[in-house]
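Hi L.,

You mentioned the student needs an example of a multi-chain input paired with its predicted structure. This one should do, with 523 residues in total across all chains.
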Amino acid sequence: MTVKKLSPEELLGLNKFAVDEAEPHIVLDKAICAKCAEKPCLVVCPAVLYSLKDNEMNFDYAGCLECGTCRVVCKNKGIIKWNYPRGPFGVAFRCG
Amino acid sequence: MSDDEKFDAIIIGAGPAGAACAYLLAKAGKSVILIERGSTAGEKNVTGGRLYTYALELVEPGLYQQAPLQRKVIREQIVMMSQHSAMTMDYVDYDFGAEVPQSFTVLRATFDEWFAAQAEEQGAMLAIGILVEDLIEERGRIIGVRAGDDEIYANVVIAADGVNSFIAQKAGLRGDITADSVGVCAKEVIELPPEVIEARFNLAADEGVARVMSGGTDGVPGGAFLYTNKDSISLGVVVNPVEAAQQGKKVQEMLQDLKMHPVVYPFIKEGTTVEYGAHLVSELGINAMPKKLYRDGLLLIGDAAGFVINTGTMVRGIDLAIVSGVAAARAVLANEGSTNVGTAYLKELEDLALLPTMRLYAKWHDIVGNPRMAATYPNMMNEMIKNMFFVDGKLPKRIDKAMLSIVRKHVSIGQLAADGWKGFRAI
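Structure written out for the whole complex:
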């Protein structure tokens, strides 16, 4: 294989995740997000997990890298809950 | 776990800070529980990165020789990149690295797992897959932690829970970290055969390169890094998330563009990306540290205490984490049953040169974080270098006039003087 640009989906596909289906560790209040003009989460999430669909903010916690960037840039507090996944769920880096 | 079980120390987070602390406390015969939310120590961590071995020597002389380290860094490179060119400063020191102090590249999943296992061998109890949710407080003193339905008690709780330290926040020692005080890092680990890495970087077996790059972040303040591991390359970008958001530039895309840059691509071509990671990095050094690093019954160590230094030529964090773990262990051992552990911890941080070093670099962010470092100066430098090598048969401009006109094209003389003065003052 040769090195090429990879899409977020391809990159996340390389990682190992144990998704906690019962409990999302990050929860949004979509009404707050709808009113947020800046929406920095769309840009800064390294996993590109925030997306707009028909003007509604969507977030998929399954591919979260647990970096915390969305939490620190979220200006209008549309992220109403940001925890680490319950042990031992979430991403498991094999190299780190 | 029964409610009446009480440890000498609870350590939250089995990274290098927590493991170092647990190692020394357990070795001294203390009952220590090291609680880790991952299913192994290290699986939640991401680094650039490198480890300076002097720190491991403080834990146990010679310990680094058994550690799963990657390559000994003998080459330090600083790269100023513009879009299609680069100026690389390549420093090689073949004497460096025979003995401590030296540095090695490292991958955290393997290193942290090994280090936590060393602490276990000394007698620490490693509890994996457990997320500590809260602290237990009694009359102003931290006396334990809560995880799910479990309550665990100890004489002292040591928070080594990383850059997003919720424990430090819950203890009231710091507010939420702010977006302007951190960089967001995106990193790929790209596998290549060891002999290919050695040929491309001019290395003998086991020798490695650490490279910091400016100008590779599409104009967003920040930088990029490349470290050679045994059979892979760690390549990443670290940028200011506020600026990235304002400029609408995705961190993930910056990293993809960096891979294709002519000064990076030849080193990684034919490689295979095997992992994609992200992490926050404290960027402001001592300026963003919690005002207080302890309270009664609680100490903050490692990233939780904000111990990161970025000088622009090197980034230190793992070594400082280990040193702070050592400092905490020494303070705890020397002050059993007393309420002076916090002040003793600060004294150890002074004696081990950690806080003095943080203070020394207090203003370096003025240089490293200067927005013009992300594009203006790397572009200017590249154009100046190009001028020195360019021949087209026409009468060249006098070198002083040529250089001055290049400088003026990129930055005003007033701005250059201001940046220079600010930089000089920061040193």
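You could point out the following to them. The mean pLDDT of chain B is 95. The longest strand of chain B covers residues 272-282.

Best wishes,
N.
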